[in-house]
Amino acid sequence: MTILNSKLRVAWFSPLNFDGKVRSSSTSAYFTDLVSNKLKTSFEIDFYTDADGEYQGTPTLNYLSFYQHHRKNPYSIVFYQFEDSKAANFVRMHLGLIPGITLFHDLLIKVEMPPPLTFSAWPEILKGFNQNSLTFPKKYPQPDRGPFAYREVSLSPVSLFTSQRLCGEAKRLVPDFIGSNEYQGQLSKLYLPMPTSDNVQLSMRDKSKDVLEIVFAGDVGVEHRAHKVLLALREVSIDYRLKWLVSNKDISRAKELCSEFAVLNVEILVEKSPKKWSELVAKSDLALHTLFSVYGTPGPYLQISLMAGTPSVVTDFAEGEYIPNDVVFKIEPGNQEAQQLSKTIESFYFLKLDEREAISKNARRYALENYASNVTAENLKDIFLREAPFFSNIYRHWQDIEMFGRQEVLAANFEIFDQKYLHDAFKELGFLENA
Amino acid sequence: MANILVLGVKIPFTKGGAETLVNTLVKELKARGHDADTVELPLSFNSKEASLGQSALWRTVDLSSFGGKNVDLVIATKFPSYYAKFPKKSVWLVHQYRESYDLYGTRFSDFSDDPRDEALRRMLTDADRKVLSECSYISGISKNVVDRLNKYNDLSGEVLYPPLPLGNKYQSGNFSDYILSVGRICTIKRVDMAIKALPIVHNFIKLKVVGTPDEGGVMEYFKNEIDKHHLWDRVEFLGRVSDEELINLYANSLAVYYAPFDEDYGYVTLEAFASKKPVITAQDSGGVLEFVKHEVNGLVVEPTIDAVGHGINKLVEDRELAKRLGLQGYKFIESSGLMTHGWEHVISRLISPLNLS
After folding, report:
1. Which of A409, A425, A429 sits opposite B119 (nearest CB)?
2. A117 in contact with B, Cβ within 8 Å
3. Residue B215 needs a FRET pair 20 to 30 A away by CA distance; which of A29, A274, A341, B205 works?
4. Is the pLDDT of residue B140 over 60?
5. Given pLDDT bands bounded at 50, 70 and 90, which one contains residue A1?
6. Buried b (16+ CB within 10 A) or exposed e, B50-63
């Protein structure tokens, strides 16, 4: 009797936090920490990276060995996480080698792409796959692609986004994607909220204290509005203290900005990470999330603040726009932001304790409904299960692309292997298999 | 005593560590009474697809007997010499076709997401695994090389560090006002980082570069950089030099710069140590890091021009530190056996298939 393993196999491509060695800047690694364990009861997951290590007690696999494992025991789903970070460059390389479900933490790319992708074949692959016509040019022209992840979205039959705005922008900017001619569900681009830990430290600040403890995790770039925050704080007439959590690369500039705006009661804290933010936000009265960016996302920081039940100020744009008004305080972007912010801070300071408490509860409730990691994990599980049959179809067709590549390589060697003695060697070495 | 062939790969008009390794191995085998010789085929990559033909070619060569002598053992070294078919085959792996392995995804590889590139990569990886699995004994010239075998081909092997080609002939002299760079001149060796660092290095310090280019356009690129930064008097290209000259250059350098990207092994490191000189290398220099420890016997810096420049200045400004680090390097190499008696172990392992029935 054969006992069938009912678990679907998932190949999970992502930067990881290995053995306590935290890649604090990797959103993908943070997401994996929160979600992957919760999926293990439903799926058999192999983790693929470009580095050696153990993750969750299991050795990780090198991404270049994927095809060998897939050939031996095929995966039902290949899951990629894309972010604008060098750590995720191997993901960018591989998602052109076999399509999958890709979770996008970013849509705009600032880091240098892996140089071999400068002349990526993706427009032809897309066309060839969707139209079943495999005629590839000898050499690819460098596509005029701009700074967006066109290639990565196009090559992902199912794209997920941790920001609603990015999801909308991707739908607008990238209408054609691999498998689009046969995709029935019209669910190819979806929003999957960035999760946070349900066990996040709850706000424990004694709200009756006179000094308002404010925290901020924006970086020094203009989009995060640090200059507006500092200007607002210079104007407020209440007793406050600001704790500003920054990445190490931003320390000098953060100090310069504070002195430029003559805001002195600021403590700059370094080594920004979700964990540090979680500890910090729990001991504060008010969190500022003033990002105003078309394509930037707050990462997991806003979610952590809400989950902790810490009242938060957001910009009424992009992610902030979708949050109900009774959950956060909103600043209208581009309209005297500093003045709005200082008024909001002062109003908050003078709120009664029960009013603060109500906002805190709303924030926590909203976060539990939307950002709890088990909610995200359940959503992802549903997507995996729903899309698995579609991907088996995709992978069947993908074999034509692979076969085409093999035939072309052999064609380039035709004059050599056509000779009897080399033909035998080609055959023996397996070069002629499946061609 | 056995008849042994060492299989090498020749890229005409160039000379690097792999050629030295093959020649030295043959010499050492002969010194132990074996009848040893080299078999080399030229390697030319006009296109990466041609690597299949080059591999298959090795497969077809009949190595069983020459001049009435039966060959007992072949020792393969670098890609694609290990494609040779022979009943008793050892491999002392120098490296595989790195563009499809560890260099994949970097600026040193042109394998992209083109289905043709991917097909080729898979063909080579699968075939490598097949032909390397045939070997009666598998080893690599460094931990880095053996780790790659394990990571990409799921094969294990033994680390056999090649002893120094000039044994204990290296000398130590003055700590003069120059930094020495030794090796093939190509992009991956990153000699350009040292050249471009010179403007921030004390201006009495020169860079002496030993080696010949094996990549088109690289010297023109260097010359442009030299012109751009007015470094005409500070960089000296010495080309290929005699063993005596090399010993002398090592002996009187202030330090040795050796920061290639993910190097397989690198004789240069050990030659520097044998000459009591510290090595300035980079955090991503691969096999070099198996020997160079930061501020113990050299400096391990970020792979940036600034970091290399500051590293050189540190040794320029503190010559006692340079001496101390160099001495530590020497102590290491002396105790490792790589300067003198290391060959006994290497050869006994490489010829171990002869004991198999």
Report:
1. A409
2. yes
3. B205
4. yes
5. very low
6. ebbbbbbbbbebeb
Q: Do domains B3-163+341-355 and B178-336 have the same CATH topology?
A: yes
Fold of B178-336: Rossmann fold (3.40.50)
State whether A140 and B114 contact (CB < 8 Å): yes
Which of A409, A416, A426, A433 is the mutation pick for testing B, counting most B CBs within 10 A? A409
In A, residues 44-83, which contact B (CB 8 Å cutoff)? Answer: 50, 52, 62, 64-65, 67-68
How does pLDDT run across A86-117, given as a tens digit for each residue? 999 999 999 999 999 999 999 988 888 888 88
Residue A171 structure tokens: 């739908």
Q: Name the class of domain B3-163+341-355.
A: alpha beta
Q: Per residue in A258-284, pLDDT tens?
A: 999 998 899 999 988 888 999 999 999
- Tell me which residue has tokens 């990153």: B190
Q: Is A109 helix (H, G, I), strand (E, B) or coil?
A: coil
> Does residue B242 carry a pLDDT above 50?
yes
CA dihedral A16, A17, A18, A21 (to 10 degrees): 140
Distance CA B139, CA B145 (A): 9
Domain boundaries, chain B: 3-163+341-355, 178-336
3-state secondary structure of B64: coil
- Per-residue DSSP letters for A44-78? EEEEEESS--EETTEE-EEGGGHHHHHHHS--SEE
Tell me the C-alpha distance between A325 and B10, whole Å.
72
ipTM for the whole complex: 0.85
Taking CB atoms and an 8 Å limit, are B53 and A96 in contact across chains? no
- Mutate one of A52, A64, A134 to test the B interface: name it (highest B CB count within 10 A): A64
CB-nearest partner of A412 from B47, B106, B118: B47
Residues of A in contact with B130 (CB under 8 A): 429-430
Q: Are B350 and B90 in contact (CB under 8 A)?
A: yes
Q: Give the tens place of pLDDT for each residue, A238-265.
A: 999 999 999 888 899 999 999 999 988 9
Which residues on chain A are in Cβ contact (under 8 Å) with B111? 116
Which of B52, B118, B125 comes nearest A431 by C-beta? B52
